[in-house]
Amino acid sequence: MKRVLGCIRRADERYNMIRPGDKICIGVSGGKDSLLLMYGLKLYQMFSKMPYELIAVLLDLGISDQDYSPVAEYAESIGVPFEILKTDIGEVVFNIRKESNPCALCAKFRRGALNDYAHQHGCNLVALGHNRDDVIETFFLSLLYESRLNTFGPVTYLNRQDVTVIRPLVFLPEKYALSVAKKLELPICKPNCPVAGFTKREDMKQIIKYLTSIVPDPETRIMNAIADTHKYGMWDRLRLPPRDIE
Fold first, then answer.
1. pLDDT level of residue 196 (50, 70, 90 thresholds)
2. What is the side-by-side order of every strand in the sheet holding 125-127?
3. Cα dist. 19→49, 81, 116 in Å?
């Protein structure tokens, strides 16, 4: 858990994520990362002695009758106010819209519901559990499917809801998140999405897995390239020689 807290501290100090008096809404999915984030932010609140508030919400997408009571009980046990918000997102995406590629629309609806919930409950920050692998996978998704160099940022301000999204686990490798979650025996919920395990993001995991077979520690190298902006060498920074105009 020490490494998890170290990654949270590194992200917080580097990107000035949390300030005294902030009220943070943690988006909990029931997966290992969001549960670990909830526990990590509770510990960080104690160890850093920084006065900020925490609440957590889990969006029930209405896809199946999954029992989230173990998550609610765990949140109560560590002293984090927790609520399950029932939505019809699954019904809209899979049954009404019948999306062939549902991930983007589902993510859009979930972001909107979570940010609105945070705003309504007086939160100025929304914390998401994206880890280092998520950053890199999103980078490759944008590169290969959108022809652009892009990934989500550690801090993003949303002016419509007047909330700022923070991702305190961006420097945490997924393998460490999995290891710590198992040791802590977190109440991880099984994915109940019909397309779980069959998405383009899973393809990106396979690409990165292949890279690890030919390059030493490619995840660290790629993450450093993303985070160290002073090393960027894209064409928008070209220094072209002056040309005489005839």
1. low
2. 82-86, 53-60, 23-28, 125-127, 163-166, 155-158
3. 11, 20, 21
Nearest to 205, CA basis, from 138, 119, 144: 138
List the alpha helices (DSSP H) in 16-131: 32-48, 69-77, 89-90, 103-120
Question: Rounded CA gap, 58 and 34, in Å?
Answer: 10
CA nearest to 223, candidates 175, 171, 178: 171
- Using DSSP, how many helices (H) and how many strands (E) does the chain show? 9, 6
Q: Is the pLDDT of residue 178 over 80?
A: yes
State which H helix or E strand residue 11 sits in. Answer: helix 2-15
**C-alpha span between 3 and 181 (Å, rounded):** 12
pTM of the shown model: 0.89
Residue 140 has pLDDT above 90, yes or no: yes
Q: Rounded CA gap, 177 and 14, in Å?
A: 21
Highest mean pLDDT among 62-71, 147-156, 192-201: 147-156
Q: 128 vs 97, which has greater pLDDT?
A: 128
- Give the residue among 102, 110, 105 at the shortest CA–CA distance from 27: 110
